[in-house]
Amino acid sequence: MSVSGAMYTSANALNAFGVGTQVIAHNLANVLTNGFKSSRTMYYDLPAQAGTAATTQKLFSPTGPLIPAQGLPPNPNSSPLTPPGFVEGSNTDIATEMVGLIVTSRAYQANAKVVPTVDAMLGTIINIRV
Q1: Nearest-CA neighbor of 15 among 112, 120, 102?
Q2: Are the CB atoms for 54 and 16 separated by under 8 Å?
């Protein structure tokens, strides 16, 4: 892989892990929103060693916990199986999201470290050729 290829691969990975961080932040921000369905990020390798890309998927199961409505309007996003007098809570698991956030941030940091490394390599190459 060339020096510029390493930079391109790292840039694609930084973009993908940035999307992953946004999805996790969205899930955590809506953890108390009744009927909210969390999303997840699927990572896949691009062809020809071009790095990593990401797509986002909504999770439709498992359903969130049932919460007594207590004057809340019915949620149109709730499952039709939700009994009367209850609303479906968010299906976001805070522990899972926090672990995902740590993994995603470490992957982002590792790919961000490539940028100064490539810069140093290019500087060495230029100094050798001069």
Answers
A1: 112
A2: yes
pLDDT values of the chain reduced to their tens digit, one per residue, 130 residues: 576 677 788 888 899 999 999 999 999 999 988 888 888 898 888 887 677 788 877 766 667 777 777 766 665 655 666 677 777 788 888 999 999 999 999 999 998 998 888 888 888 877 786 6
Q: How far is CA 81 from CA 63, 64, 86, 122, in A?
A: 10, 12, 10, 61
Structure tokens given for 49 = 């060693």
Global pTM reads 0.76
Q: Cα–Cα distance between 102 and 67 in angstroms, integer?
A: 30
Measured CA to CA, the distance from residue 26 to residue 41 in angstroms comes to 12
Q: Where are the domains of the chain?
A: 3-64+90-129
Type of residue numbered 50: A
Ramachandran angles phi, psi of 42, nearest 5°: -105, 125
Q: Which two tokens stand for residue 34?
A: 């009744």
